# Entry
Amino acid sequence: MTKIKSALATVRDTLIEGVALVAVSKTKPVELLQEAYEAGQLDFGENKVQEMALKAEAMPKDIRWHMIGHVQTNKIKYMASFVHLVHGVDREKVLKELDKQAKKANRTINCLLQNVMPTVIQLLTLKKPLSQSSLNPLCFCFGPIHINIYLPCVK
# Structure
């Protein structure tokens, strides 16, 4: 058993059911990622969009890529076609760009909002529309500013 395979097995043994292990692969070569993939690792996290895009091109297509760092809006287009989850979305501008690029890629991009009030998170998880209109607005709060927008391609 390789060192990577052994380490992954050790960590997986400590996880409770339903928890996914995201292997932070930043600065690691594709060869090490491939070894982890062959040991069953499917979730990889990167903090640089360009590095993630290069690795995504070289690696198997069933990998779930996680953007785990700050996201610049001008870089979103490079990951929109393959990113599985964007962690720590902290600005409306980023959400809007994710939605725009997701539409172009004909897919939905999953996001974790950062600094969101618990009552607003409850609004995000409602199964019923918030109004009688055909649009189901996404409501969230960044600091003191309340934003109410419709973004069909981010969730």
